[in-house]
Amino acid sequence: MTRRLRIALAGVLAVAAALVATEVVAVLSPTRPSLLDAVQRSFVDTFGGALKDLAVSVFGESHKTALTVGTFLVCLALAPLTARLEVRRRGAGAALLAAFALLGVACGLAHPQSSTPLVLLAGLVGATTGTLVLWVLLDRFGIRVMPGAARIFADRRGPASAPEPSEHDGHGLAEVAGTRREVVLWALGTGAGVAIVGALAKGAGDAGRTSRSPIPASLPAPATRASTPARQPFDVPGLSPYLTPTRDFYKIDTTIESPYVVTDEWTLRVVGMVDREIELSYADLLARDLVEEVVTLACVSNQVGGDLVGNATWAGVPLRDLLAEAGVRSGASQVVGESVDGFTAGFPTSALDDPDRPALVAVGMNGQPLPRAHGFPARLVVAGLYGYVSATKWLSEIRLTTWEDEDGYWIDRGWAKEAPVKTQSRIDVPRRGQALVAGRIAVAGVAWAPNRGISRVEVGVDGAWHEAELGRVSSDDTWVQWHWPWDAGPGDHELVVRATDGTGATQGQQPVAPAPDGAEGWHSRTVRVAAS
Ligand SMILES: Nc1nc2c(c(=O)[nH]1)N[C@H]1C(S)=C(S)[C@@H](COP(=O)(O)O)O[C@H]1N2
Ligand SMILES: [Mo]
To answer: Whose CA is nearest to atom 21 of ligand 1?
Structure first.
């Protein structure tokens, strides 16, 4: 094994040991982010603005995997450098490890959910472990380190000036550090140790997280139930169901892993320009009369034809009631929701002027407590506003302020401050690539303009528009299913859809990108129909 390879191996194992050590410290308080979580989160906060669209389209919703792989690759690339520095000058590699630990500590301290003592401890333990492992392995691998400080593991090999073992080790050096046998044994041993400790830390962390932040099995029955249409006038296979099952509901947020909120330690505060600040526990929220509303939630990043939209029954406390209790002071013009992990979203108080527009501090989704992915224990849902300006998940604070005084998370990352959901329509069936034969073919999909409602959906094919049949809805705050039975002849056809909202405005054809305030344009699908 070449000297270069042995150095690199020592570096990789040392860095792996350092990372695992910080994860071990994180087990002490498993519902808080580990140092690595905090670093990844800072990365998202720093660069996610530029990546948002890209990340959504390139990685889908699996940013976490991409980030983890990225972190792993960065560490893999830097680890050999750490070891080479240490070989050049004792202490230099350790200094690099310490610098990374400091970076981690800085990210940790910036994270609203972390505890300062634990962050400092993790940084210290990580850097120390990495340095010790690096020193031991370099020594056992027979790598001579240029003195910069006293050698501390040189006992078996005599003075620091002992000659370097041959590059072609293994010849007559059986008892000396750096033989192939010793390198392999120490590398495998250290690697196995790191892997085992890492797996144990992961297991203990997962167990601790779920046991310390349980989600109740059910919610109190809502005092006011949503009226959902019992059945739809048509049933088309492949058409999105009117109510999106929770497991299929899109998930978009800046977290790498959804926060684990311990309800006993959690409160929701209503603060800022109010006469009386309010603080509610989870039990306080559940003890109130819960109201159900069916509301379609949409992401501003949704492309024409995309699936970052869903319709669910939300149960919660009307936001207006809480604000009335707190007494909104005159001059307040913005409602900002802040989450336990520091995300913020703000919308004008005027969005609450229309008493018929649903605005909830939601604790339930589709008849169950909110799942962690969708904001347990509580989130905001305001009909007709894109999620990034309204739908704060893992809600911890509702702040009354002025419009000018504060910008939500995505605003200085280039997205519009005021963001009503634009009218969109989507073709679900025929699916892309679905085999079709001439005759009656169902064309169907969904259209939404929450809070304005959809008054008409038209399907265009071969240059003519046809009015689609609309399904039943709970209210103007939800999407509507639409269906048009097409008598299709053989050949290639382009299907397009356009919707008209409750104000009479029809979607324009001109394509507009999602940034900065939502995509526009007609969704189309080219289909090939075979002769029957
Ligand atoms: N705490 C927090 N809440 C958040 C976000 C976030 O990143 N953090 N993202 C918002 C965005 S951009 C959208 S579109 C909706 C998505 O809600 P969902 O994941 O439940 O579908 O949540 C909003 N609430
Ligand atoms: Mo979003």
So the answer is: 251
Residue 208, exposed/middle/buried by CB under 10 A (0-12, 13-18, 19+)?
Answer: middle
Q: Look at ligand 1, atom 1, and give the residue with the nearest C-alpha.
A: 393
Q: Which of 23, 68, 41, 71 is nearest to 339 (CA)?
A: 41
Beta bridge partners of residue 345, listed in sequence order: 337
- Cβ atoms within 10 Å of 155's Cβ, excluding its own: 8
Ligand 1 near 249 CB (within 6 A): yes
Tokens of 239: 């058409």
Angle value at C-alpha 87, between 83 and 91, nearest 5 degrees: 85
pLDDT digits (tens, 9 = 90+) for 370-396: 999 999 999 999 999 999 999 999 999
pLDDT in tens, 227-272: 999 999 999 999 999 999 999 999 999 888 899 999 999 999 999 9
Mutate to test the pocket of ligand 1, among 113, 248, 252, 372 (most ligand atoms within 8 A of CB): 252
Maximum separation of any 2 CA atoms in the chain, in Å: 91
Q: Which atom of ligand 1 is nearest to the CA of 410?
A: 12
**How is residue 111 written in tokens?**
């994270």
For residue 257, CA distances in Å to 29, 65, 149 come to 16, 11, 42
Asked if 481 and 232 touch (Cβ cutoff 8 Å), the reply is yes
**pTM score, whole prediction:** 0.92
Q: Would the CB of 374 count as within 6 Å of ligand 1? A: yes
Ligand 2 center–CA 246 separation, angstroms: 17
Task: Tell me which residue has its CA closest to atom 24 in ligand 1.
Answer: 392
**pLDDT tens sequence across 134-151:** 999 999 999 988 886 545
CA–CA distance, 281 with 265 (Å, rounded to integer): 9
424 CB neighbour count, 10 Å cutoff: 28
Residue 442 CA to residue 452 CA, distance in Å, equals 27
